[in-house]
Amino acid sequence: MEGTSREYEDGIGFTLSHKNHHTENLALGMIFNSSYFTPETFFLTGLPGLEAVYPWLAIPFGSMYFVALVGNSLILVVIHGNPSLHQPMYLFLGMLAFSELGVSASTLPTVMSIFLFNANEISFNACLFQMFSIHSFSIMESAVLLAMSVDRFIAIYSPLRYTAILTLPRIARTGVAIALKSVVVMFPLPFLLKRLPFCGHNTLSHSYCLHSDLIQLPCGNTRPNSILGLCIVTSTFGLDSLLIVISYVLILHTVLGIASGEGRRKALNTCVSHICAVLVYYVPMIGVAMVHRFVKHAAPAVRLLLANVYLLVPPVVNPIVYSIKTKQIRHGLVQILLQKKCS
Question: Which of 18, 22, 96, 109 sits between 20 and 30 A of 62, alpha carbons compared?
């Protein structure tokens, strides 16, 4: 497609294709108008040229999935089992862990099947479901990071009214609203894809199903999908990242107004874990997008390796960061380990 179509692609993989892409699709539709079909399966792409070392690659990837699934599950168990952690900051952390579990669980089956069994087929409906799950949980993760930045601003700007503003019912409603938003904005995309005609193209360019891959395969008019995809990117990742930046500008302005140097240090220290989570989420996403956009001569295996890794980085790193930087989480994990050892 390179050279005939220019794309806008964000880190999660929504695509807005220019007019020439649609012209090409329509031309293909005229050529193959007698062979429109909905493919029963798609073929996923692992790391081209590295098939011989797939069993060895399964070790680091399997280890990262293990850390992501176990680490985030333990954080949920610690927060759920400790009433003293039923506070806004930790409840939002639980939402973050849940969304990261969802992203990891969504990509694990196909990625590990390729590396362990060289099995790269996925059914049409399973592919659509995986696409829906990956994007929905990623949107959820971005929204939770925004909620956590607002939480940090309120805690620093108005510490005496913190618990009065962020009550448990409000946090619960926020969590429900985030989950509903993540599902509702993604809900039309699988149906828009199912209505499109396919003309013999069923090979995807990643180890899992993304909207940017799927939108390249039909030979009909994909403009509604592309427009909706851009609207989703703008209203979720784009808006969330802008509001997170604004939140931290307000936090910095508030912190600079604190007279005591020790007070400023303590206030900023409460934001360190969240800042790390934001950087771990957005930096790999931007990095992958930059590589796809500007590093045209990078080996396909390098691009695909980065694409596989960047979705795994936040779920792996965040439990480690919060376990190290948050004393209450660390103590809760120690208690769980001691209880298991005693039993």
Answer: 96
Residue spans of alpha helices (H) in 121-222 = 124-157, 162-165, 168-186, 188-194, 211-214
Contact between 204 and 45 under an 8 Å Cβ cutoff? The reply is yes
pLDDT class of 6 with cuts at 50, 70, 90: very low
Q: How many residues does the chain have?
A: 343
Give me the phi and psi of 16, to 5 degrees please: -115, 110
Angle at 110 between CA 105 and CA 112, to 5 degrees: 85
Neighbours of 122 (CB within 10 A): 21
* Dihedral angle over CA of 192, 36, 44, 20, nearest 10: -70
Q: How far is CA 316 from CA 11, 53, 103, 108, 309, in A?
A: 18, 23, 11, 13, 10
Instruction: List pLDDT tens digits, range 193-238.
Output: 998 888 777 899 899 999 988 998 888 888 999 899 999 999 999 9
Report the amino acid identity of residue 273: S
Q: Over 18-58, what HEC string results? A: CHHHHHHHHHHHHHCCCCCECCCEEECCCCCCCHHHHHHHH
**Following DSSP, what letter does each residue of 65-124 receive, concatenated?**
HHHHHHHHHHHHHHHHH-GGG-SHHHHHHHHHHHHHHHHHHHHHHHHHHHHHH---EEEH
> What angle in degrees, to the nearest 10, is found between the helix axes of 54-81 and 327-342?
100
Is pLDDT of 33 > 50? no
Q: What is the pLDDT of residue 12?
A: 45
Neighbours of 197 (CB within 10 A): 17
49: left (phi over 0), alpha (psi -120 to 50) or beta: left
pLDDT tens, residue by residue, 129-149? 999 999 999 999 999 999 999
Mean pLDDT computed over every residue of the chain: 86
3 state SS of 199: coil
User: How far, CA to CA in Å, does 124 sit from each of 29, 37, 128, 208, 259?
Assistant: 20, 11, 6, 12, 60
- Distance between CA atoms of residues 328 and 93, nearest Å: 12
